[in-house]
Design a protein that fits this description.
Blueprint lengths: L10 E6 L4 H7 L10 E6 L6 H7 L3 E4 L5 H11 L4 E5 L9 H10 L4 E5 L11 H21 L11 E4 H7 L7 H12 L4 E5 L14 H18 L7
Parallel strand pairs: 1-2, 1-4, 2-3, 5-7
Antiparallel strand pairs: 4-6, 5-6
Helix pairs in contact: 5-7, 5-8, 7-8
Length: 237
């Protein structure tokens, strides 16, 4: 059962940014900082004022030596002091209030929780480019479900929560935007309890997406083949 009204005492909120000054300025006051035991940002070296904004707000920043969401996730896991982590991007797409709901899912027994843009109660941002991405997301989610016995509606969204223990068992090594999809596929293979909450995706506040849909799709195809052939070889011996 999702716990919506409670204080999250031992969870870490990870804010993922790269040149996101427009988003973080507008979203900052909506983030439920008081509900988290720890909050820090992971950033590969923004040059648009994002890092100065964090300094002004006394937000701890972990600087990535290597760019990419995969590295950001692993760096956050290595440095968080709590077992539960939520990964949040303040670009306007993600509702900050869902962060507490995601943690509630983990506290309620889920191994991983994902904010889904494709349930009946959800909303995906509505423009032509997003519709194309939405079709791709649904396609790749369907493939993962069929191959690995899952039942997800959104295997790719990065807005999610997971415990450090479960993340380390997944041992994800994917780079860039493939990290979330790999986590979902490996979680299916291990029979993790994955809970989805419906989310209302807002419009991006400023700038464009930082990934190319076609190139990302090609990487997803390669990742599917790798995960299908390797089965559970990612587990530590």
């Amino acid at each position: 059962m999702v716990q919506e009204k409670h204080d999250v005492k031992k969870a870490t909120l990870v804010i993922l940014t790269f040149n996101e000054i427009g988003g973080i300025k507008e979203i900052y006051n909506k983030i439920p900082f008081d509900k988290f035991d720890e909050v820090f940002a992971v950033d590969p070296g923004s040059t648009d004022g994002t890092l100065d904004f964090y300094k002004e707000k006394n937000i701890r920043v972990l600087l990535q030596e290597k760019k990419g969401r995969g590295e950001a996730f692993r760096l956050a896991i290595d440095n968080a002091r709590n077992d539960i982590l939520v990964f949040f991007s303040p670009d306007g797409n993600e509702d900050p209030n869902d962060s507490v709901k995601l943690v509630g899912c983990i506290e309620g027994g889920a191994d991983m929780a994902i904010a889904s843009r494709f349930t009946k109660q959800s909303r995906a941002a509505d423009d032509e480019l997003i519709k194309i991405r939405g079709f791709g997301n649904k396609f790749f989610t369907k493939v993962a479900n069929v191959l690995f016995g899952g039942n997800l509606s959104d295997s790719i969204n990065g807005y999610r929560a997971i415990s450090k223990e479960k993340f380390l068992k997944l041992n994800p090594d994917a780079q860039g935007f493939c990290i979330e999809y790999q986590m979902s596929m490996r979680a299916m293979k291990l029979g993790y309890k994955i809970v989805e909450i419906p989310t209302i995706e807002g419009d991006r506040i400023s700038g464009g997406s930082k990934h190319n849909s076609f190139r990302t799709g090609m990487k997803f195809f390669k990742l599917i083949g790798k995960e299908f052939l390797n089965r559970k070889k990612f587990l530590f011996s």
